[in-house]
Every structure is written in structure tokens, then in C-alpha cells.
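Let's see one such:

===
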Amino acid sequence: MKTVTDVEALERLYGFPTKPSVLKVVDHIHPAYRPFIETSPFAVLATSGPEGLDVSPRGDPAGFIVIEDAHTLLLPDRRGNNRADSLRNILTDPRVALIFLVPGVNETLRVNGRASIVIEPAMLERFTFEGKQPRSVLQITVESVFFQCSRSLIRSELWNPARHVPRSELPSNGAMLAAISQDPFDGDEYDRELPARLKTTLY
């Protein structure tokens, strides 16, 4: 199978970035980019570590990732499954990447930087929500920021309700766990208990 193995071949295949593609990259949270972060209720966090790569969804009410200043973002780490894959990676490789999505908007915002895991009590207190503090807050030093054009979301029709897939058309969480498990696992019971568990453990 023919593959691309060097930068020269890649550039012959794709050409070079257009002027706007280069112009849009800045090393800080530019005022023009702030609204994408302030109105986003959902972001995807990418990290890298000794065990490989990880990409993790992060969500909360819009503006949950705080712009501390033009070079710093604060991301509370809310309750999850305790795998802590992203945090484990950051301990050995602080490089992170974020993509911010705004419902109904086809452009996204990309941020690259370096993160540290903060557990200072005053910092955790700042991010209390519904009476619960995060266990930690990621302090992200911004290195580059740019918007991603709308093509991928237009092609996917991500925000088109007519394209939304009923959850019932996909395997349930319990069904997937039962299929994967090497030991007997009651997937039906897991599914029955999941809604109440999510409600009481969201934060």
C-alpha cells in the first residue's frame, strides 16, 4: 500500500496553508476568541503520556472553563470514572490540546498549551457547583489559539436534529459491558440503576 512517509511528499499532496490559516493563529486568548470559550458548554481535552494518547470530553454550564487571563485557562476536573487518564498523562507530559464546541455553531476553537494539576483549596472553592468542589483544577498555560473552519461540522450535520440518532438504536452501556466482560455481568441491572446513579453522582 502506497503511503506518505515524509513532509515533502505530504506538501506535494496537500499544498501549503492559505494566508488566513496562518493568520488566525495567536499565542494568547485574543478578545475575538474569548466568546467561543465563554459560551462553550463542551470541550474535548487531548493529552499524551507513557501509556499513549487520551482524549476526554469535558462539559458543564457555558463558560465552565475560565479565562483567568490572556495566557491562562482554568478547567475544573469534575466527577468521572476515576480512571484519571488525562491527569496521569499530564503528570509526565504537560502538553494538552482543547477543542471548544458551541451548540449550533459550526466553527470550533482550538487551544494548545501546557497544564498543571492544582489542588489549592482556594482554587477548588472557586469552582464549587451545586455544593460540590472539583478534586482538582487544570491550570493551562496557553501557547497557541485558532479557530477551526466549519467544514467538518457542516459535512457531519452535527447540529441537525433530523440527523440525531435515538439512543435506543445503539447498544446500551449495560449491554456493552456484558458483551465485553469475561465474567458474568448483569447488563440489564446496570442499565436500570444507571439513571439514578448519574443523577446522584453528577457532581
The chain has two domains: 7-156, 165-201. Residues 74 and 139 are 5 Å apart (CA to CA). The helical segments are 7-14, 19-23, 34-38, 85-92, 121-126, 151-156, 173-180, 187-201. The chain is about 30% helix and 30% strand.
